Amino acid sequence: MQISNLGELLNATLIHEGSVLSVEGFAINLNELKTGFAFFNNDKKEIAQAVKKGAYAIITENDITIEDKEIFYFRVENLERALVRFLRFFCEDKECEFLLFKSYELSLCKAFYFNILKGNIFADFEKLIKAKKGEIFCYCEENYLNKLCTYSHSLKDANFTLLSRSSFFFTTLICENLYFKNLNLPFFYANSFAKIISFLKEKSQKIIFDFNKIDDFKIYFIDDKF
Q1: Are 89 and 140 within one domain?
Q2: Quick one: which of 169, 173, 165 has its CA closest to 218?
Q3: Among 27, 71, 76, 116, which is disulfide-ready with 32 (CB 3.0 to 4.6 Å)?
Q4: Phi-psi sector, 192: left (phi>0), alpha (psi -120 to 50), beta
Q5: 224 lies in a domain?
Q6: Does residue 92 share a domain with residue 55?
Q7: H or E element in which residue 139 lies
């Protein structure tokens, strides 16, 4: 990305104009920082280390000492809001999709290998910045998702048949002409499961899930009577 475009996107004030024209990537912590990256951070010590590691642009909300005249320094009013603006642009460019679920449904999303956000822009930065084109992200708070996209949406209800053999421990159902037998899934998750199956079929995506990935659906026996 051209550094001049980055500054405009962030609505940032240019503190010092460097000599490089573009950045190769973006980071908020030193472990992910590479030469040529833009570095978002408010910690002066980490910023100094980022300069030494080869950052091409520094974005911060604090006053800062210019340590390298070859790189760009920007000041933003609020770093969190600047990251939201940047990631919204980035995710729209990648055509990412954001799905709204109930909080109890997020465990089911994990079984389908969906990307589950944490609801904090700093905690979610690495996951979002590494997004592939068309990648799907899930969370349970609409306000947070709508910061990252123009429109987040819930999955449509799907037609399914819950068979009588279903129980608190296992579920058997028919959905989208597919037969799912003895799923390690409580029957009251059947509607949510069916919505995801219908969504994946509509997207022509491969249906893969693994309930062993989540503890919520595991059965624990307290004693030999239960």
Answers
A1: yes
A2: 169
A3: 27
A4: alpha
A5: no
A6: no
A7: strand 136-139
Residues spanned by the domain of 169: 160-217
Helix, strand, coil shares, percent, the chain, to 5 = 35, 20, 45
Q: What is the pTM of this model?
A: 0.86
Residue ranges of the chain whose pLDDT lies below 70: 165-168, 215-226
pLDDT at position 219? 46
User: DSSP of 156-176, one letter per residue?
Assistant: PP--EEE-TT--SS-EEEEET
Beta-carbon contacts of 164 under 8 Å, excluding residues fewer than 6 positions away, are none
* Count of structural domains within the chain: 3
46 and 22 share a domain?
A: yes
Same domain, 9 and 48: yes
Taking alpha carbons only, the member of 63, 52, 54 closest to residue 15 is 63
Going by DSSP bridges, is the β-strand pair 25-27/37-40 parallel, antiparallel, or unpaired?
parallel
Q: Which of 15, 57, 13, 14 is nearest to 38 (CA)?
A: 57
